[in-house]
Hints:
The protein has helices at residues 19-33, 40-45, 50-58, 64-85, 93-102, 115-124, 148-157, 171-179, 212-215, and strands spanning 6-9, 107-110, 131-135, 164-168, 183-187, 201-203. By secondary structure, it is of the alpha/beta class.
Amino acid sequence: MPPIRAFIFDLDGVVVDSNEMHVQSWQEVARRHGFPCDDPDYIGKCGLRTLAVIQDLLRWPVSSAEAERIGWEKEELYRQWIREGGIRPIRGVMEFLTAAYAAGIPCAIGSSAPRENVNVCVSALRLEQIFSVTVSGADVQRGKPAPDIFLKAAAGLNIPPEQCLVFEDAPAGVEAAHAASMRVVALRTSHAANELAAADAVVADFTGLPPPEELILGAWSRR
């Protein structure tokens, strides 16, 4: 098995504790337009692109153009709240990222979120220097569980996919990482352990991981 040389992080539920804010922004947009919003907690943490949520999960009876417009409205509301009040990081992630940067381990974001969401979250936590590459859902043709986002992140880092370790919180992200020939650590920040069983390791959050420089040295697993 090739050594790990780089880390790729999903954004929502991995770097930022955003589920509640996503749920509330979905509920607000549904209220504005008079649509139902069933199981909003799942919608907030499913890891799919906004358009896929509207068309495939919520199944709101709107055209693709209207779905795009409503999706933009929802995400702009979410971003407005972050600009006004900030956003919480996932437990332990700031310390983990700081240690990875100090150890010289290249780090990237690989998220299904819109580019603007990635930028506002990275800026809110002042992580621009740590993430040398950021890939959003807008940067690829196919979202997760397709591997495109992670493959583009690896290419941006100039690291072979099989030498990248992914941090994810959603089953679709775990599937995408494996489709990209990457190993993946799943965090139980959004889903139960049994939903993440396909991952190479499952932990509660970053406090359950060894230091980054130890993690890249070889086999480690915890479920």
